[in-house]
Structure formats: C-alpha cells, structure tokens
Design a protein that fits this description.
alpha/beta, Rossmann fold, 2 domains, 6-stranded mixed beta sheet, 4-stranded antiparallel beta sheet, binds adenosine-5'-triphosphate, L-valine transmembrane transporter activity, BCA_ABC_TP_C
Length: 251
Amino acid sequence: MLEVQNLSMRFGGLLAVDQVSLDVKEREIVSIIGPNGAGKTTVFNCMSGFYKPTGGKILFEGQEVQGKPDYKISRLGMVRTFQHVRLFTQMTVVENLLVAQHRHLNTNLIAGLLKTPSYRDREQKSLDRAAYWLERVGLMDLANREAGNLAYGQQRRLEIARCMVTEPSLLMLDEPAAGLNPAETKDLNQLIVSLKEDYNVSVVLIEHDMSLVMDISDRINVINQGRPLANGTPEEIRQNDDVIKAYLGEA
Ligand SMILES: Nc1ncnc2c1ncn2[C@@H]1O[C@H](COP(=O)(O)OP(=O)(O)OP(=O)(O)O)[C@@H](O)[C@H]1O
C-alpha cells in the first residue's frame, strides 16, 4: 500500500535523510527506529506532505504523493499524529473530532448555511463517528471537557481518535508512547494492535519505547544518521549486530 523509494531530504548542508526505502502492506505495523536525530521524523514529514523531499519517491496505493500538500495526502487516507500533541486545546474533546472531519471532507459552505438534508445527514454521521471513537478510546465521559485540560495520556488517545474519525487506511504515529506511564503504554499497545486487527488500518510507528516496538511491529526499519541500517522482523532486528552496536546497545 505504501512504498518509499530512495527518499532523501537535504536541509542546506545537512543530508538528514539519505536514500531511505521502506514499504508497508495492508494490515501491517511497521516501525521506524534509530537514535536521536537519525532522521525518523523527517521521513514522516516527507510522507505526510510537511516537507517536499529533495529526492526519491513515495507511492501510496500506486500513486506518487511526494511533494503533495498535507491535506491532499490525508484525504487519500494517510494521516498522522505528532511527536508533540497538537490538539485545538480550547475546544472541547468532541469538537476536536468534529473539526477534524470537517477539514477532511471539505464541507461545502453554502450547503452548511442552508442546512440541506445531505448536509444534516453528514453532520449526524460525523457525530456518530465522534461518539464511537470517544467510546473506543475511553474518553466519552470527557466529551465536553476542554481538550487542553485533559491529562497527557488522554490527549494522546484523543489525537489517535482524531485521526480515526477520518477513516484512514494508513496511520502514522510519531512517538505515541512518549510521556506515558507503563499502564498507559500497555493500553496504547492494545489500541494500536486493535486498529490493525479490527479496523484493517496499517500503522507506521516511530517510537523509542523498545518493548512496545518489539511487541507490536510486524517489521522494523532501522535508520542511523539518515541512512538505512537494517530492516526485518523484531527477532531479526534484535539479533542484528549493526543494530545492537548503533542503537540497542546504547539503551
Ligand atoms: N526543518 C529542519 N531544518 C534543518 N534541519 C532539520 C530540520 N528538521 C530536522 N532537521 C535535522 O535533521 C536531522 C534529523 O532530524 P529528525 O527530527 O528527523 O530526527 P529523529 O530521528 O526524528 O530524532 P528524534 O528521535 O530525536 O525525534 C537532525 O540533525 C535535525 O536537526
């Protein structure tokens, strides 16, 4: 479903990503790991349309998407979360989920003003989807709370719900376990696995929590100083000498 081919990204004199390739199949959880500054987030920023890569191709469902704006990429079904939670903090929890759907569907202003039947039907479906995902991530009781007042772990779950209401086929999660306690990380683990198993979503995961990565990944890509170092199953990665030297040995 996703193929990244020889992706490169240069910032002035710094080659932050150098010929990185990876692929993601339907219903797969693929992780990208590597030391700080390895270029993981830059790969995500290229995949999600935040950066226009300086080299290489990104194919989603066979279509080239490199250099396309982020809103077009997300409408194709490829959506992401951020390393630092980015919610509308002064809106309520449920409003965050409704706004995500409006932005995604490119709602027609005139239809909205006239409140046509099809518009009302879509509004109802948006509300239903919001309610479903609030229940699913355990935030229903907090639906009318300001998002900025939620605990950090709850904000992280809301971010995932905000992606899921747009019904993506590929979800990109940038360090979703950062700042979570062990119990919250366990919940997150189950949630990510269920996105794949129950909703047929493929997941690309950037994460420093190795036990989470090893536990849920179907395949892992390791990058080091912008360059691909290894890829394989968790078992293969665990035993790879280069990886142990460059990364796992550090931890
Ligand atoms: N917009 C930018 N302009 C200039 N340099 C950048 C930019 N974004 C990232 N970099 C540089 O690119 C390199 C890779 O950064 P990136 O954030 O992709 O690493 P990372 O693997 O995600 O790190 P971490 O695990 O710490 O989040 C770093 O040297 C970083 O300073």
